[in-house]
Design goal:
The protein has 16 helices and 24 strands. With 541 residues, the chain is an alpha/beta fold. It starts with 12 loop residues before the first helix and ends in a 9-residue tail after the last helix. The protein binds adenosine-5'-diphosphate (ADP). Adenosine-5'-diphosphate binds next to strand 14, strand 18 and strand 19.
Amino acid sequence: MLVLMQDWPLLCHRVIDHAATHHANRMVVSRSVEGPTHTTNYAGIRARALKVAQRLDRDGIRLGDRVATLAWNTWRHLEAWYGIMGVGAIYHTVNPRLFADQIVWIINHAEDRIVLTDLTFVPLLEKLADKLPTVERYIVLTDAAHMPPTALRNAVAYETWIAEADGDFAWKSFDENTAAGMCYTSGTTGNPKGVVYSHRSNILLALTANEPDAFGLSSRDIVMPVVPLFHANGWSIAFSAPIAGASLVMPGMKLDGASIHEMLTAYRVSCTAAVPTIWLMLLQHLEATGGALPYLKRVVIGGSACPRAMAQKFENIYGVQVIHAWGMTEMSPLGSLCTLKPEYASLTGDAKLDVLVKQGHPPFMIEMKIEDDAGRRLPWDGKSSGRLMVRGPTVARAYYKDDSDILDAEGFFDTGDVATMDPYGYMQITDRSKDVIKSGGEWISSIELENLAVGHPKVAEAAVIGVRHPKWDERPLLVLVMKKGESIGKNDILDYMRGKVANWWIPDDVVFVDEIPHTATGKIQKTTLRERFKDYRLPTA
Ligand code: ADP
């Protein structure tokens, strides 16, 4: 029997229609790239997104065409997303922190027809434009007064461009499985890989993100996505906030501790999300200035493991709930969130922190399993660690223009992460499969050691890599960046770590560096570190 319910395709422009109808006045505040703060609301975002769609349509952009954005989180970027999707085209967020060669490769691979760029990236694009034959037009996200002289092909100021449209336009309609967005993984090895989101997958994920055991957004929330829209689909916030009718605060390009604190306080932000590096800068700023977080209720921390000391400070000093989250570009990107189920809800102190540093439990629509190298399922005992595999309607089944089969026989995608699952379904990442340290046939978790080391009050950042050892195959080397003006001896830090992990996990040596290299999405670049220390002679060797 066929259903008698309405056929209502899950299309992303319905999200902004809903927000503009039922939460029309909810503010969208941005720190503009030009400097001043800009305020609009969902009705305003929708009105201008319609102009974007109309204008793209007039420029000949059609269903399935790719439109790139190189832009910070501002109202213009949000309007552009909805305008692009509303004409049936695909927003392709390009991460401007990638190497120039990778940016060229990605834009060519996606065959982007138009590039919308912030002022910040005009000089970069001018250097690359010769190598971008598919791009017909560059739209600079600014007004005529701030438009720089540029030789970029058909360049126009965004405000001038949309002023040529009156907004009298109807969103295009198509199947919910139509591509809506595209994001490339940074590809620490090999070329970047293109992940393509559908209208349907974006909406399903946004509904998931809004569950009480996820971001838990409501129309009473004021959300600041510090995580850029160009990082893993902006963690869904461009969809989940308007679905919930939550206000948005867009931080623009200033992501240092003082600027973030200013936005959090001035606009009474209740929920925010970013990678640990951002929160490290915020906490350092608060410690230096004696600042507080009187309005913030929840902080989502993901992209890399949330260090224990970070969770402890947010929860115990600043009274902010930590929601540790895990995911990846291929998962739209949310895979799990760490909120407390009844089994853990009454925990306090260290026992609670033990749970908060786990990556959490998957929401509905994400299925997980862990497997050993032979493909056997491992028990959920909180100890057995294996390859983490996932499946669901918001998980990629293939990469763009790539025939390789990325799913196993049961349809699970290999995340490349190594994890444990506990009896209550809490997942904890112990490593990337390529970063795990193999010592005497046993595995040592580099992440656990890093988290432990950054718990030392004088340590700013820590990385642990495996270094060749004649007897054990590999042994851990601890690489440390100290906080400004601080120093410690090797034994001080190793003594600090002793007793907190198995003795044979304690690193064989410590090196101090000025800086640890990061990828374009803020993760520690282990490949570069391994290369740098590949001939390092451990004192135990
Ligand atoms: P990229 O690979 O382009 O940097 P992704 O966001 O897709 O960007 O990276 C996904 C990977 O990031 C995951 O597979 C995992 O290794 C790591 N990751 C994400 N969140 C966490 C977390 N909370 N704890 C530990 N690792 C994480």
